[in-house]
Write a structure and sequence with these properties.
By secondary structure, this protein is mainly alpha-helical. The protein has one domain. Helices cover 78% and strands 0% of the residues. It is rod-shaped and about 80 Å long. It comes from Colwellia psychrerythraea (Vibrio psychroerythus).
């Protein structure tokens, strides 16, 4: 898997969220550099876990949708079957 990369806008938004969290919850000021460093650390060390969970969740949703499609196809075919004796 390649490294998770964010756009500059996403980085700005995430850094701001990290800084706000530290200020509100920990009563600490966190500079831009430190917040970006923390973001990089979490992206590299735990980002893959979140990414994989997202893939797992997406796979479950797609599988459920495919089951629905399969049922619809079976029903549709049953409706157009010709009776045979």
């Amino acid at each position: 898997m390649s490294t998770i990369k964010f756009s500059s806008t996403e980085i700005e938004q995430l850094v701001t969220k990290i800084q706000c969290y530290f200020a509100k919850e920990l009563d600490q000021d966190l500079g831009q550099f430190d917040a970006e460093f923390l973001l990089d650390f979490f992206s590299k060390e735990v980002g893959g876990h979140f990414y994989n969970r997202g893939l797992f969740d997406a796979q479950a949703v797609i599988a459920a949708k495919l089951d629905n499609v399969s049922e619809m196809v079976q029903e549709g075919i049953s409706e157009i079957e010709k009776p045979i004796s």
